[in-house]
């Protein structure tokens, strides 16, 4: 149960004035600093009955302005007396690390705790090695006094702010000779005096994906890492400048306090406030408990509050603030990777984020003599011993230009580097000579146009529907997997193919949803297949061509030379033989007794790009621009040319090929599609793929009634209407993921698995995940809904139902006609007509009530049976519209008795040379899920074959990959 702010106990711990706070790593204690020489107080935060005990340390003779803790339990403090003190994890004073003639404004430990960054009343930031305070690196670039600074979680970046509201991003990577400023955000924050309550606080998010600071409009601005551009703004709750802010341990929330005595906790996903409190005094210190739902607040009156259960976690919309998501499996986070500006032309000055600022040795603070080991910041770099050698356990690459040998770049070199950076980087900032705002904007616009022009001519990356990466995508990180990593190669309503990477081979697992028909299996993949597809006929896999290197001994040898096999000195006598393995296509049947597996190798230099399989064919597109069609038994049936294929999917005897047809101008991918019958080699449709503006194609597939479907990055699902009628195909939007989530008050995303006639089958993704991970999550069903107007009204809802049913029914009738099975599904089609008529009669009744006679008459023309017209006549008579009833009688006579009403011309009339509909030799409506529908919370199956729906209503939390054991496939009736 959440606790309201007014019920939080107040601790009067300090005299009036600014107070600051930081939790220790274990969260059991919090370090608080105050004014008027009150020093530090360390409070136990898990006290019983809120009787908070504390330890006092009074080493500062003036106000404490900042405190910082590290992962080793050590903490530090800075004050107006110019001292930076270190303390042991036992809350004992250790020593003075730095002595300055100017007040200390902010301090921050490197994530490994070995270094401390310090901002004083100066334009220079100093990074001090805690184990040896003679080892110092200066960060120069600010033109005004520095107020705040913060490391990101990896230590590869630092962000700082100054009194004029300028924010700088520094590359602190060990791979850089010296730290460099890589971005300047000029006047992004407010201007504030050094002694002002406004702290211009800058804070990295826990995952390093962005950082936040107070904006100029009483808001909080968030900047995206890698590209260093505005990400989003938290605004609307403060009426004065933001004093300080802090991220929750998992980054889901951000707390901010303003001079107007308001305190807000923001949901960083929805950008809305979770808490908004009016405080008795301005809050100056905020710290989140590292593991609990708890936040520590301090204010200008010296009052402290430990607010437990600050987040109402009893509400499912508000996750626990300290529940950590699993970190990415790669060695570095996606947010810590360099942003790839040009494909192969990244400037040398661009950082590579792999480790900390310097080699992260475990150099910790050691006990030194008392007084005398501190350093005077005003004389830094002048009195350092040139012969002082770094020991093996010291920071060996802690660069100091203490002898003028050029280890640290000069001001001129720094300026040249910054100028070059501006020329090479789209987001080049530099801290050298100022560039006018107009010139900078013009340059940025030019670079952006150039980028768009270059990328427009690059075809989209090909993909397999239902595949996922081994790990979360990260810029400049190889897709190559690590030992034991797994991913999905295919995932649809038939089943899922997953692969586990091992050294030298992979393990492929195939799991079917209907295990009464097929049995799961797995096999060892020695070729490390990179793509796969699954259907009711079997599974197919492919891998690109590659070279295999084999070592052989150059000379003969007998048994006496066996010891030499392990002699590295003889390695020069080995000869390497390179063997080219052509790209491979491999088919494996679902039932081993029915068919035999087979393999085909592509031509030399030809790689398989994408694959698909239906009941009668295996289709592969290749790098030579060929589309190769094989029978299920492996017979080569067709080959034709089609360049730049982006993706392919198949079902029954159809295949949908999506390909790029030129530059992608107009903020949209320029994609075409071809709907192909792989048995007769007929092209049913060939036209443009319709996508939402500024979106990309994410998935293609077929519904259970054999209707082509697409899903884009904007969350819009489209079905191909009249796909068997020549030149009549068009894309109908049937689902809008963003609109559905917003209507239900959610921020989730939907990852398509398949489509039923009235529902989208998908995996629900929450958080920042773009793909499902392991264990295999349950599949949920979401109702389809066309984007008609006024959906919240009864009329709008009924009209949407009619149009959707009409669209669905037209496709199903075409499929039945194409497969000569109209009689088999006559009852199903009649039920659909009756359902549409029921909705139409409701609309006729509403029209009569509202005196819209012409509307009622128009609706009567759409009715599908004479019985329905009779009911419409009764409605008209009931509302005393005799004339309308007579006209309805005439419609019944003309439409259902004399059949004299005009009917739409057939395709045979307008296209006599073309078939009215493309036929098919394969049944397309016999699937177990073809006519499964949801009615009033119940499932109705017209074919009575099997139920694919389960009442599992477990919500899926997609925060991170997991290594839990996979569960059997389940559908859920939860929306």
Automatic annotation (TrEMBL):
<feature type="compositionally biased region" description="Polar residues">
    <location>
        <begin position="959"/>
        <end position="975"/>
    </location>
</feature>
<keyword id="KW-0677">Repeat</keyword>
<protein>
    <submittedName>
        <fullName>Uncharacterized protein</fullName>
    </submittedName>
</protein>
<feature type="repeat" description="WD">
    <location>
        <begin position="235"/>
        <end position="276"/>
    </location>
</feature>
<feature type="domain" description="WDHD1 first WD40">
    <location>
        <begin position="12"/>
        <end position="305"/>
    </location>
</feature>
<dbReference type="GO" id="GO:0000278">
    <property type="term" value="P:mitotic cell cycle"/>
</dbReference>
<feature type="repeat" description="WD">
    <location>
        <begin position="139"/>
        <end position="180"/>
    </location>
</feature>
<feature type="region of interest" description="Disordered">
    <location>
        <begin position="316"/>
        <end position="337"/>
    </location>
</feature>
<dbReference type="GO" id="GO:0006261">
    <property type="term" value="P:DNA-templated DNA replication"/>
</dbReference>
<feature type="domain" description="WDHD1/CFT4 helical bundle">
    <location>
        <begin position="797"/>
        <end position="896"/>
    </location>
</feature>
<feature type="compositionally biased region" description="Basic and acidic residues">
    <location>
        <begin position="934"/>
        <end position="949"/>
    </location>
</feature>
<dbReference type="InterPro" id="IPR057646">
    <property type="entry name" value="WD40_WDHD1_1st"/>
</dbReference>
<feature type="region of interest" description="Disordered">
    <location>
        <begin position="934"/>
        <end position="975"/>
    </location>
</feature>
<dbReference type="Pfam" id="PF24817">
    <property type="entry name" value="WD40_WDHD1_1st"/>
</dbReference>
<dbReference type="InterPro" id="IPR001680">
    <property type="entry name" value="WD40_rpt"/>
</dbReference>
<dbReference type="GO" id="GO:0003682">
    <property type="term" value="F:chromatin binding"/>
</dbReference>
<dbReference type="InterPro" id="IPR048591">
    <property type="entry name" value="WDHD1/CFT4_hel"/>
</dbReference>
<dbReference type="Pfam" id="PF12341">
    <property type="entry name" value="Mcl1_mid"/>
</dbReference>
<dbReference type="InterPro" id="IPR036322">
    <property type="entry name" value="WD40_repeat_dom_sf"/>
</dbReference>
<keyword id="KW-0853">WD repeat</keyword>
<dbReference type="InterPro" id="IPR015943">
    <property type="entry name" value="WD40/YVTN_repeat-like_dom_sf"/>
</dbReference>
<dbReference type="GO" id="GO:0043596">
    <property type="term" value="C:nuclear replication fork"/>
</dbReference>
<feature type="region of interest" description="Disordered">
    <location>
        <begin position="550"/>
        <end position="576"/>
    </location>
</feature>
<dbReference type="GO" id="GO:0006281">
    <property type="term" value="P:DNA repair"/>
</dbReference>
<feature type="domain" description="WDHD1/CFT4 second beta-propeller">
    <location>
        <begin position="462"/>
        <end position="788"/>
    </location>
</feature>
<feature type="compositionally biased region" description="Acidic residues">
    <location>
        <begin position="560"/>
        <end position="576"/>
    </location>
</feature>
<dbReference type="InterPro" id="IPR022100">
    <property type="entry name" value="WDHD1/CFT4_beta-prop_2nd"/>
</dbReference>
<keyword id="KW-0539">Nucleus</keyword>
<dbReference type="Pfam" id="PF20946">
    <property type="entry name" value="Ctf4_C"/>
</dbReference>
């Amino acid at each position: 149960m959440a606790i309201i702010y007014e019920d939080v106990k107040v601790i009067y711990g300090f005299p009036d004035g600014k107070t600051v706070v930081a939790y220790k790593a274990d969260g059991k204690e919090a370090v608080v600093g105050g004014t008027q020489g009150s020093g530090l107080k360390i409070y136990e935060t898990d006290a019983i009955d809120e009787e908070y005990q504390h330890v006092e340390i009074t080493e500062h003779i003036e106000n404490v302005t900042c405190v910082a803790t590290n992962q080793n339990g050590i903490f530090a403090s800075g004050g107006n007396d110019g001292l930076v003190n270190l303390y042991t994890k036992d809350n004992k004073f250790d020593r003075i690390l730095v002595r300055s003639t100017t007040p200390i404004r902010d301090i921050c430990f490197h994530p490994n705790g070995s270094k401390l960054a310090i901002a004083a009343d100066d334009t220079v930031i100093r990074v001090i090695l805690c184990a040896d305070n003679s080892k110092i690196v200066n960060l120069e670039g600010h033109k005004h006094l520095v107020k705040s600074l913060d490391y990101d979680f990896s230590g590869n970046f630092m962000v700082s702010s100054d009194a004029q509201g300028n924010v700088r991003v520094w590359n602190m990577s060990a791979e850089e000779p010296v730290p460099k400023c890589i971005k300047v955000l000029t006047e992004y924050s407010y201007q504030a005096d050094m002694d002002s309550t406004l702290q211009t606080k800058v804070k990295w998010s826990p995952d390093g994906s962005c950082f936040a600071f107070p904006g100029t409009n009483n808001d909080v601005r968030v900047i995206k890492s890698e590209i260093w551009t505005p990400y989003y703004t938290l605004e609307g709750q403060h009426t004065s400048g933001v004093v300080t802010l802090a991220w929750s341990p998992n980054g889901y929330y951000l707390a901010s306090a303003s001079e107007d005595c308001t305190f807000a906790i923001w949901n960083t996903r929805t950008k809305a406030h979770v808490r908004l409190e009016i405080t008795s005094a301005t809050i100056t210190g905020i710290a989140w408990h590292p593991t609990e739902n708890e936040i520590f607040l301090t204010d200008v009156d010296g009052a402290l509050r430990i607010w437990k259960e600050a987040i109402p976690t009893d509400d499912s919309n508000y996750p626990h603030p300290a529940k950590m998501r699993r970190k990415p499996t790669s060695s570095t986070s996606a947010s810590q990777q360099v942003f790839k500006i040009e494909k192969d032309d990244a400037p040398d000055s661009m950082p590579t984020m792999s480790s900390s600022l310097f080699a992260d040795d475990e150099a910790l603070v050691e006990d030194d003599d008392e007084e005398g080991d501190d350093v005077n910041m005003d004389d830094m770099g002048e009195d350092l011993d040139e012969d002082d050698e770094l020991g093996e356990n010291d920071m060996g690459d802690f660069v100091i230009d203490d002898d003028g040998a050029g280890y640290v770049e000069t001001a001129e070199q720094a300026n040249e580097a910054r100028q070059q950076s501006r020329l090479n980087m789209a987001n080049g900032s530099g801290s050298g000579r100022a560039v006018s705002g107009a010139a900078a904007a013009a340059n940025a616009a030019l670079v952006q146009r150039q980028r768009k022009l270059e990328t427009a001519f690059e075809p989209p990356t090909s993909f397999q529907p239902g595949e996922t990466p081994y790990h979360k995508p990260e810029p400049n990180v190889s897709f190559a997997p690590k030992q034991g990593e797994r991913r999905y190669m295919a995932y649809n309503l038939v089943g899922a193919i997953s692969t586990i990477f091992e050294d030298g081979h992979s393990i492929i697992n195939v799991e079917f949803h209907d295990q009464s028909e097929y049995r799961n299996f797995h096999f060892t993949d020695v070729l490390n297949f990179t793509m796969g597809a699954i259907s009711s006929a079997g599974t197919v896999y492919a891998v690109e061509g590659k070279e295999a290197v084999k070592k052989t001994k150059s000379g003969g040898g007998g048994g006496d030379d066996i010891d030499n096999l392990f002699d590295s000195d003889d390695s020069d006598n080995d000869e390497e033989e390179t063997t080219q393995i052509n790209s491979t296509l491999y088919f494996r049947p679902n039932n081993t007794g029915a068919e035999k597996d087979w393999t085909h190798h592509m031509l030399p230099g030809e790689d398989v790009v994408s694959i698909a399989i239906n009941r009668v064919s295996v289709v592969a597109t290749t790098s030579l621009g060929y589309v190769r069609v094989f029978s299920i038994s492996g017979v080569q049936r067709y080959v034709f040319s089609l360049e730049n294929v982006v993706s392919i999917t198949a079902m029954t005897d159809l295949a949908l090929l999506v390909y790029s047809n030129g530059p992608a101008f107009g903020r949209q991918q320029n994609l075409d599609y071809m709907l192909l019958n792989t048995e007769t080699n007929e092209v049913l449709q060939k036209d443009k793929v319709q996508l939402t503006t500024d979106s990309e194609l994410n998935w293609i597939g077929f519904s259970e009634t054999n209707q082509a479907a697409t899903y884009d990055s904007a969350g819009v699902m489209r079905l191909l209407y009249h796909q068997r009628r020549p030149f009549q195909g068009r894309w109908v939007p049937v689902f809008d993921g963003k609109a559905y989530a917003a209507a239900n008050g959610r921020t989730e995303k939907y990852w398509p698995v398949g489509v039923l006639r009235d529902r989208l089958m998908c995996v629900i993704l929450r958080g920042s995940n773009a793909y499902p991970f392991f264990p295999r999550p349950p599949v949920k069903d979401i109702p389809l809904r066309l984007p008609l107007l006024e959906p919240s009204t009864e009329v709008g809802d009924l009209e949407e139902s009619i149009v959707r049913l009409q669209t669905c029914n037209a496709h199903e009738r075409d499929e039945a006609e194409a497969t000569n099975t109209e009689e088999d599904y006559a009852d199903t089609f009649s039920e659909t007509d009756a359902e549409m008529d029921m909705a139409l009669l409701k609309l006729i009744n509403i029209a009569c009530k509202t005196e819209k006679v012409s509307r009622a008459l128009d609706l009567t023309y759409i009715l599908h049976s004479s019985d329905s017209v009779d009911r419409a006549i009764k409605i008209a008579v009931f509302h005393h519209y005799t004339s309308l009833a007579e006209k309805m009688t005439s419609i019944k006579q003309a439409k259902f008795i004399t059949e004299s009403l005009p009917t739409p011309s057939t395709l045979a009339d307008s296209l006599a040379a073309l078939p009215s509909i493309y036929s098919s030799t394969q049944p397309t409506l016999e699937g177990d899920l073809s006519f499964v529908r949801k009615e009033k919370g119940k499932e109705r199956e017209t074919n009575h074959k099997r139920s694919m729906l389960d009442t599992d209503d477990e919500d899926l939390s997609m925060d991170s990959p997991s290594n839990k054991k996979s569960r059997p496939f389940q559908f859920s009736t939860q929306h």
